[in-house]
Design a protein that fits this description.
alpha+beta, Alpha-Beta Plaits
């Protein structure tokens, strides 16, 4: 008997991780166009902290459409969506912030914001000058992707949409601290939490962090603690033609502002990371009146409590000395509003492979901490957290940086962020990134 030759067809074995990654990427591609449109809509209709009613309505409507359990009105306008997978497993949380800033946009975009409002007694534009429109759109994109694979998910995902990250007018409460106080991390209690920030910084020398698609992270301290200060200087007004009869609040405040700059250079180690910025100085009503009152606001950024205590002490001494010498008085208040944001070391190292799979190994870089601040810290104080930055500025484009009228991130940041955050979520529900084979 003659045996006929035969050929064995050997098919390549595709690891399960690669299969699921391909499925996830396809799902991201499907939802991205609609999420980009949503980003444009939110960008055109920015809302300040505790006033994000339209944005919250869009979010709640989308989450309900996907079949999630939805809570609204958390910390005034916050929204929480709960997606329960088809299989038992851990509980994880994703957080995005929603509010805009009192800034008049200068970008010439088809979806440019032209809204205006009154903020702290003055007319101003309103703009998403820190990327929160992108954060909301991307997190809703993740909700769409994960809802589409609900039956396969092992566990529960809590989507937290937070108002008022940028701060509030005096006398109001809100933001991350208030969301935690009102139970954002309860029922169910997440085991870990993830968040990202779209990076629209000007070009820098630290790993091109702003470059479109670049993912950057820090192990441990990630962003500084922020302390807001408010000061009032009380002098004595007079006619502009008789300044000798006044106690000039403008001159006194100017001397204080200049003297504050010596704290960093003469009272702290040059190796200490810290910032002291006076952002508001208001005084006077007319050209021919010597102002009797001045108002100052600013921010302090630190990574160590001892540094903050030194800055606060020296500020009191400077205000006291200069106002006494001028014959004025002062009031000075500190609000330690944002604790240090620190990534959980073990969690961060565990999920770096997830970032690399989502963005490409060459696009993931570890960077030093930033002096920016984030009230994500209130969440990560309660449970292990990981906060990453996703670059949003393509080659040939420019952004003037966060909190400026020319802040810009590209639309492609939305699908890039969906892919990164969905990968983190799926890997976390599966007990961690799949091991290389």
């Amino acid at each position: 008997m003659r045996l006929l030759p035969f050929t064995v067809l050997v098919l390549p074995i595709v690891p399960l991780a690669a299969q699921s990654d391909a499925e996830l990427r396809a799902a991201v591609d499907r939802v991205a166009p609609r999420m980009i449109e949503l980003r444009h809509d939110i960008h055109q209709h920015p809302e300040l902290g505790n006033r994000e009613t339209r944005t919250a309505g869009l979010i709640a409507g989308e989450l309900r459409r996907l079949g999630l359990e939805v809570r609204t009105g958390v910390a005034t306008t916050g929204v929480i969506g709960i997606l329960r997978g088809g299989k038992p497993g851990p509980v994880i949380a994703l957080r995005a912030d929603m509010d805009g800033l009192p800034i008049t946009e200068r970008n010439e975009l088809p979806f440019k914001s032209t809204l205006t409002t009154t903020y702290l007694g003055r007319e101003t534009g309103v703009m998403h000058a820190c990327g929160h429109d992108t954060h909301v759109a991307a997190q809703l994109g993740v909700a769409n992707v994960l809802a589409g694979m609900r039956a396969q998910l092992k566990g529960t995902v809590v989507f937290i949409f937070q108002p008022a990250e940028e701060g509030l007018p005096p006398g109001e409460v809100g933001g991350g601290k208030q969301m935690v106080a009102e139970g954002a991390l309860d029922n169910p209690r997440p085991d870990m939490i993830f968040a990202f920030h779209a990076n629209g910084d000007p070009p820098d020398a630290e790993g091109d962090r702003e470059r479109l698609g670049r993912v950057s992270y820090s192990v441990g301290p990630t962003m500084a603690a922020a302390t807001k200060f408010i000061a009032r200087i009380h002098g004595r007004p007079a006619h502009g033609s008789t300044p000798h009869l006044s106690v000039d609040a403008v001159v006194t405040a100017s001397e204080v502002v200049l003297a504050l700059q010596t704290i960093r250079s003469r009272n702290l180690s040059p190796f200490s990371d810290n910032v002291l910025t006076v952002g508001v100085l208001q005084a006077g009503d007319r050209n021919n009146i010597v102002a009797g009152e001045a108002y100052l606001e600013g921010t302090i950024r630190t990574f160590e409590l001892a540094t903050l205590e030194t800055i606060e002490r020296r500020m009191r001494e400077i205000f006291d000395g200069i106002t006494r010498s001028a014959g004025a008085t002062f009031e000075l208040e500190f609000d330690r509003s944002h604790p240090l944001t620190a990534n959980d070391t073990a969690l961060t190292r565990r999920f770096v492979p997830s970032l690399q799979r989502a963005a490409g190994t060459g696009n993931v870089v570890e960077v030093p901490p930033r002096t920016g601040a984030e009230d994500f810290s209130y969440f990560s104080q309660q449970i292990p957290g990981l906060y990453v930055f996703i670059g949003g500025v393509p080659d040939g484009m420019a952004s003037t940086g966060h909190h400026t009228p020319g802040f810009y991130v590209d639309d492609q940041t939305v699908p890039n962020a969906i892919r990164v955050m969905a990968t983190l979520a799926v890997d976390a529900l599966n007990g961690g990134p799949p091991r290389a084979r």
